[in-house]
Each structure stands twice: as C-alpha cells, then as structure tokens.
Amino acid sequence: MTSNILLCLNIDHIATLRQVRGGREPSILEAAQIAEEAGADGITVHLREDRRHIQDSDVEQLKPIVKGRLTLEMAATAEMFEIAQKIKPNLLTIVPEKRSELTTEGGLNVINNAEYLKDFLKKIHENGLEASLFIEPDLKTIEIAHQIGAKRIELHTGQYANTLAKTEINKLSKAAEFAHSLGFVVNAGHGLNINNLKPILQIPHLRELHIGHSIIARAVFIGLKQAISELKALI
After folding, report:
1. CB atoms within 10 A of CB 195
2. Is 180 labeled as catalytic in the residue annotation?
3. 103 has pLDDT over 70
C-alpha cells in the first residue's frame, strides 16, 4: 500500500459552522493548526464567488500560518486570479462553480472551455503559481488538459464515493496511469471518507488526497485531531 500520499484537509465546513452565527467561532486558523499537528500535510479552502463559507480574510490569514501546503480551490475568473496573485497559495485548484450547487458536482468541462482555460493557465504559470484542474477520470479530458498546458490534475472521485463500484476504481486507475504517462502530477478528492478510502489508495501515482466534509463531520464526535490521525494511519 502506498505510504507517501499527502493528506490535505479541506476546512470549508469549519467556516460553514462559523458563518451560521456570523461570529468568530469556530476558528479556521485554530482548525488548521490542530490539523497540521495531527499530521495533515496541507490545508485546502474553496473561496466561492458567493463567499458562503471561506472569506477572503481567511485565505490571507491562513497563508502565513500553514506550515505545509495551502491549496486554494477557485473558479477560473479574473476576480479569483487577482486574489491568488496577491496571496500566492502553494497550489490553485481550478474547479467548476455554480451558485445553486451544495457542493462541487463534477469536474471541469475542459473540452468545451479549452481555449479559455489555456489562457487562464498561461497567466497563472507566468505569475509563478502552480495550478491543478479538477476533472473527471476521462482520458479525452486528460489529453486536452495536457494540450492546453496543465501540469497537475485532481481526479473527481465523487462517482466512486456515490456508488462504491469497482468499475469506478478501474476508471480512476486508468486515468491516473494515463495522466502520469503524460507527465501530470495526479491528485484526487471528493466524497472520500474512512470507510471508502482503501480502494482509492490502490490507485497508482497519487500525490495528494483532498478530503474535507467527512473529516469535519467525524470530528464532531471524536475530535478533529483523532479524525485526522485515524485517516493518516490508514494512508
């Protein structure tokens, strides 16, 4: 079993709980510090257009305190590019976004938006930033992502998490193998938890797992440090 996969904790839903009351608690800065003490290799946040949980100030305050990797999930917009350029996270993960969704519903439509994403990636790379495209485990999509200059991808594991089907693991494995052959750094995430993670760990060439909601949900009952520690032990 692979032991060098990094675990990046998405702390969006710490901010969700804070926003319910509009105060300062719970603190996402404290959550990030506890997470890293417990073994998390990085912190991930999604700064949404509607600012439903993470706020601009959160990302600004996280940057100097996160010791591992800070990943900013964001839509491919001029507004988000300006924020990323200012804060300079370790990684930008470009995700599709619409206001009506409760959570990200699928991967980027790279094929239909190839030219726009090519220009957007070029700006990111010219500014010395790293970017990953959040995509479905689809070989054609991976091929186009390579053609437009992407260097990293995050495979959407939501379909596997919903079905637990071996066919989905096979699809993810083939996608990871193909992406690796093209020189991609391959990450994965969405819908993963302690009960469905083991088959994911068999997928070749994975560098990072980005997991959030399930860890925060489990932390309600056993604490954040323990929820992270048990997942790290599994990895």
Report:
1. 9
2. no
3. no
